[in-house]
TrEMBL record:
GO biological process: cellulose catabolic process
Pfam families: Glyco_hydro_1
EC number: 3.2.1.21
Gene3D superfamilies: Glycosidases
Family, similarity comment: Belongs to the glycosyl hydrolase 1 family.
Catalytic reactions of this protein: Hydrolysis of terminal, non-reducing beta-D-glucosyl residues with release of beta-D-glucose
Function recorded in the entry: Plays an important role in cellulose degradation. Shows hydrolytic activity against several glycosidic compounds.
Full protein name: beta-glucosidase
Keyword Cell membrane applies: no
Taxonomy of the source species: Eukaryota, Fungi, Dikarya, Ascomycota, Pezizomycotina
Gene Ontology molecular-function annotations: cellobiose glucosidase activity
Organism encoding this protein: Parachaetomium inaequale
Amino acid sequence: MSQEASMFSAADAVVNYGPSSGHEPPVEDLPLPADFAWGTATAAYQIEGGASQDGKGKSIWDTYSHLEPSHTNGENADISCDHYNRMPEDVELMNSLGVDVYRFSISWSRVIPLGGRNDPVNEKGVAFYNGLIDRLLAHGIAPVVTLYHWDAPQEIYNRYGAFLNTEEFRADFERYARLCFTRFGDRVKKWVTFNEPYIISIFAHLNGTLAPGHCREAGTDTKTEPWRVGHTIILSHAAVVDMYAQDFGPSQKGDISIVLNGHFYEPYDAASPADRDAAERRMVFYMGWFADPVLLGTDYPAEMRAYLGARLPEFTADERALLRRTAPINAFYGMNHYSTKYARALSEPPAADDWTGNIEESSVNSEGKETGPVSGLGWLRVAPSGFRKLLNWVWKRYRVPIIITENGCPCPGEDDVVTAVDDKFRQRYLGLYLDAISRAIYEDGVVVKGYYVWSLMDNYEWSAGYSARFGIVHVDFKTLQRTPKNSAYYLRDTFRSRRKAAS
Ligand code: PNW
């Protein structure tokens, strides 16, 4: 299995203390702007539970997490954190931590159980999100709402393959978005259309480690389908941005954009021009794939067109006009960022379905140097200097304010509840990554507006099930009791003092 394919697998979650490089600087608690927003982030399928409660329809994750043999560590999220039934307690918790923002996602099949544009609305599902939004606002917490965090209604997958059919998906997604803007947009002022299109395209439709695990099915084409999925996401995003700007923006006055994830890539051998080029190309293939059409309103990056040829779909003249028109409306670059990797140019011919630009990724470079100490997951290493470089890379290419919409880590040894609550590894990781933001802002001139930690609480980590804990709040999955970890108090206090220092 490639390193990418294994990213979400349970095997990756094996505790590994790894060699600490010992070279990381201490946390300096550097200042942040007075109006810098701090928040927590979650996703519907990972925390809600209530899998079939109050008329909710099935999503592709309800199906995928029940496959036999299991692809999800033998675990599903039928109950998970039971947030659907404990929402008031969770909002109280956030209030006690002093957060400004809560980023959550709406479960499409909870509000439109069958998902399609002519299918009925589930008013009980709508009422749940109305209750959540009202409660947040009553505590002065701003909701940031993601429309799609990986849980497509199962029925639209059955009908036409969901993302595999651009026209059908786009029409159904437009109707779902319109429903959300109509019902929630009077109070929600920040919208995200899609969470991590790269992961949806590659992990869910090429490696098959996430739902629907499409490449596992007969008759699939991994050479072209991931790029079709990406194309569907870009056009559905642009259509919804256009709709928001025309029909809702003038009265609701909110912001809308997309959330992209990506590592920073360093060359495997810094002296090799081919590896330096590979590191740059890897980021273009990862983030530029979506950010160029969405934020610049241009075609896919030229490097991708040259490499992928006919595997990459074309935009029609109308679609190009849509991209150009909507690009400047996107109000921010939503960045999910966790770690840094090395990129090495390969000389042997790539596999027919290669998606990397013929590059090998690793955590160790040609001199044997690691990107950083390993967290509770093998791929996630502490590398704050790469984060600062990525902030610069994105700012230079797109010149749009950046919001860190996810960042965080599981600690080594976190299965043990004492380690979990006294989470020094995580506090250090978060502290160093916040220092990197401060340097990017004050030393490099990058505009960064906010930081939402992943995640509010331990939850269902997709294919890894409950084996990887990203929360700043511990969840006992037997009793469902929540206990803030020390990092929760660290973030509460550091934002208080860092921002005071800045003002
Ligand atoms: C994100 N990577 O996924 C998702 O948005 C969350 O739902 C998830 O729980 C969280 O990160 C932690 O995994 C990513 O390898 C997973 O670069 C992997 C990567 C990026 C994002």
